[in-house]
Amino acid sequence: MTTPLRSELTELPRRLKALPVDARGYPVPWFVAWHDGVPDFRIADTAKWRRAVRERRCWVCGDRLGRYLAFVIGPMCGINRTTTEPPLHRECAEWSVMNCPFLVRPHAKRRENGITADMRAQSAGDPILRNPGVTLLWMTDTYRIFRDGNGRPLIEIGDPSALAWYAEGRPATRAEVAASVDSGLPLLLDVARRQDAAEGCNSVAELTRRYDAFKAHYPAAS
User: Fold this and answer.
1) The pLDDT of residue 12 is above 80
2) Is 65 within 8 Å of 55 (Cβ atoms)?
3) Is 78 exposed, middle or buried (0-12, 13-18, 19+ CB in 10 A)?
4) Which residues are registered as beta bridge partners of 156?
5) Helices (H) and strands (E) in the chain, counts
6) 77 close to 83: Cβ distance less than 8 angstroms
7) d(Cα 135, Cα 96) in Å, to the nearest integer?
8) What is the SS3 assignment for 206?
9) How many CB atoms lie within 10 A of CB 163?
C-alpha cells in the first residue's frame, strides 16, 4: 500500500511523482542515503553525488538536467558561490524550497548522532552548521568542480541568470535576507581570517568585496 502524501504539501511536479514516499508522507529525494530500508534525510549518498555530477542528474529527482540549472543554497554560499550540493531542475528546486521541512521550519531542531558527526568531519570545505532562515534559488547554466585543501570536491556556481529568495516556504523579504546575511557573515569572516593567517592571502578583502557585490541580489524592498 502506497503511503499518502502529507496534506500540507503542494502538488508534486511531474518528475517528483516517481519518488518513494516515507512513513511520514514526505517524498524521498533521489540523493538521500538509505539504511536498512529506511531513508535518512540528513545524509546524502556519495555515489549519487558522483552520478549527479558525471551524468548531469537532478539532485532531487534523479532525472537528466537540461541547459538551465537551479542551485538551492544559503546566502553564505551565494556570497562565495560555493556549495557541496549539485543542481536541480527549476521545478524540483521550487517545490523543495516551499515544502522541505528543514527549509520551511528553520527553527526546528536537527537530529544529530554519530553518523551525522562523522559526515560533518568528512565534509568538503568549511561547512557552516546553521539553518540560515532564508534560501536562495540560484539559476545558472554552468558550474565547475574544484578541490578544497584536503582534496575533497566542492562546486563553484556560475553567474546567475535568475534569483529567487524564500523563507518558510514563501518569498522572503529584503529585511529577512539582510538579517540572515549579516548574522552569517561573521562565520565566513572567521574562516577568511584563518586563511589569511595560514596562507598569507587576501581572503578577508576578497570576502568584503563579494559581500558588497552580493547585496545587489537582495529582493526589492516591499
Assistant:
1) yes
2) no
3) buried
4) 82, 144
5) 7, 9
6) yes
7) 10
8) helix
9) 14
Q: Which residue is it, cell 549539485? A: 86
CA distances from 92 to 47, 51, 65, 100, 112 (A): 20, 18, 11, 11, 27
Q: Distance between CA atoms of 70 and 138, rounded to whole angstroms?
A: 6
Residues 6+ apart with CB under 8 A from 121: none
Could you tell me the strand order of the sheet in which 82-83 lies? 82-83, 153-157, 143-147
What would the pLDDT profile of 33-74 be if each residue is shown by its tens digit? 999 999 999 999 999 999 999 999 999 999 999 999 999 999
Question: Cell 576578497 belongs to which residue?
Answer: 206
Q: Say whether 90 sits in a helix, a strand or coil.
A: helix
Return the residue matching grid coordinates 553564505: 76
Those residues with Cβ within 8 angstroms of residue 130's Cβ, 6 or more apart along the chain or in another chain: 184, 187
Count of positions (residues) in the chain: 222
* Amino acid identity at 98: M
pLDDT in tens, 160-195: 999 999 999 999 999 999 999 999 999 999 999 998
Residue 174: phi and psi, rounded to 5, are -60, -40
